[in-house]
Amino acid sequence: QQHEMSLDDVTRLSKLNVDQFYGIEVEEFPARIAEVALWLTDHQANVALSQAFGQLYKRLPLRASPHIHVGDALRLDWRKVIPPVECSYILGNPPFVGKKARNTEQQADMAIVFGDVKGSGVLDYVCCWYLLAAQYIRGTHIKVAFVSTNSITQGEQPGILWPLFFRNLDLKIHFGHRTFAWESEARGKAHVHVVIIGFGAFDTGTKRIYDYDGENATVLPVTNISPYLVEGRDAALQNREHPISNVPEMQFGNMPNDDGNLVLSDEEKRQLLQFEPGARALIRPLLSAQEYLHGANRWCLWLKDVPPQKISQFDEVHRRVKAVRDYRAASGREATKQLANFPALFGEIRQPSTQYVLIPRHSSETRRYIPFSYFDPSYIVGDSCLFLPDATLYHFGVLSSEMHMAWVRQVCGRLESRYRYSVKLTYNNYPWPADVTDKQRATVEAAAQAVLDTRTKFPTSTLADLYDPLMMPAPLLKAHQELDRAVDRCYRPDPFPSDRHRVEYLFALYEKLTVPLVAAAKKTPRRLGKQR
């Protein structure tokens, strides 16, 4: 039976009021603004309710008030603001402050919240709110959601943050909004890339991932959500000493530790050879990420295995070696002092003796592919690069593919926003395709060679130019796309619709590869010593 709703009926339908909202704000004026904002929101909701039921509904005079506490959310006891038994939801948009941007007070906050948690110094400031919320909701059905910088789902941060929650606090991720651009309305504020993570101290059968293509979102029901906001188990990658697949070991470049005395610019090389032309045999090209990508030259005095009497023939070379000794001897670090005994040598030497693939440790996040290249051992690898010795065209092809780049975008750390490629985290954990046929391998090698050949058609362009997303030549992009298809088919015959699908597939393969390793480690008797 239908009847016209009275104002009392509409009033009973309104279950929320501003006095049900509690908050913490560090400054007085923003706290008062928050109160006014809640009253305005309440008024807007009342107008919508009135329109829906044809009855004017208002709360005047205002008798209820929000509970906005003025104080530091990282120093206050949340239980004194509102006991967990009275709380249903926690939500917020904590400050976006990375490791290098924190001030002294924020550093102290991190120390108070995380204590002696190993590795917590690299976490974003927002992670403090995650830990306090996780401790607050333990043993309850409170639901939490935070807007956060996307860096907490990338690189080394997931491996530090989320094991705390999974092991000790029984957290489960209920939903995740994958990376999207957040446009600030504040004057002069650039947009940032954020995620939204919803979680609780209980499991739920309804889990969803929201994937974004510009402003369009796709909602994906999943069985479980990993810390990388892809479908996967409650686990995060840890640094690994050796690759999980049967591939060559990637290594760091050579570190000069020389105060610039063994490294030469074009002009310094020219001046040196002008006065000591016989020193040419002591000079080798040095590969560093900046010069490699932008086509500039850098050189070094490579004096490994050079007899002392030959070094002493050249006054400038001898002067530079002495300057290296003095610099190292004056160091406050004992290991550097010891290196003063070997002033003619780089501080750390790992130069390959065979052809290798060069990997810049840092690369722009705007590039669709990180540009890798082959070099012979006469080129000295600087410490801003990594290298893969004895790399075949197949290895080069897989590393240069969209499949590997999807992994890089999800797993590698960031320097500011640039990719920071890691041996132990990114490369050693990467699951290479298994059971690759000779035909599949040959197809990848042919496509990889086509990428290298296509680059040579643009001799006046730097790698930074060639891999600029706005200027990448069509023939090079097509060569890469052919390589992408060849590598994808090494993993499975069906194409991957998106990076998310690639990453989910790779994490599933990672689990298959690592489960036997974990089982073997558990069976190893304690008397055999520590496991890696």
Question: Which structural traits does this protein have?
Answer:
18 helices, 532 residues, alpha+beta, 4-stranded antiparallel beta sheet
Walk me through this protein's architecture.
This protein is α+β, with helices and mostly antiparallel strands and 532 residues long. The radius of gyration is 29 Å and the shape is elongated. The N and C termini lie far apart (72 Å). The chain is 37% helix and 17% strand. The strands form five sheets. The protein has a six-stranded mixed sheet, with helices on one face. It has a four-stranded antiparallel sheet with strand order 9-17-13-15. Strands 10-12-11-16 form a four-stranded mixed sheet. Strand 1 (22-25), helix 2 and strand 2 form a beta-alpha-beta unit. It has helices at residues 7-13, 28-53, 78-81, 104-114, 127-137, 157-168, 266-275, 289-294, 308-311, 315-329, 334-339, 393-399, 402-411, 423-427, 438-455, 463-466, 474-491, 499-523; strands spanning 22-25, 67-70, 89-92, 143-149, 172-182, 192-200, 207-213, 216-222, 251-252, 263-264, 283-287, 299-301, 356-360, 362-363, 373-375, 380-381, 385-389, 413-415, 418-420.
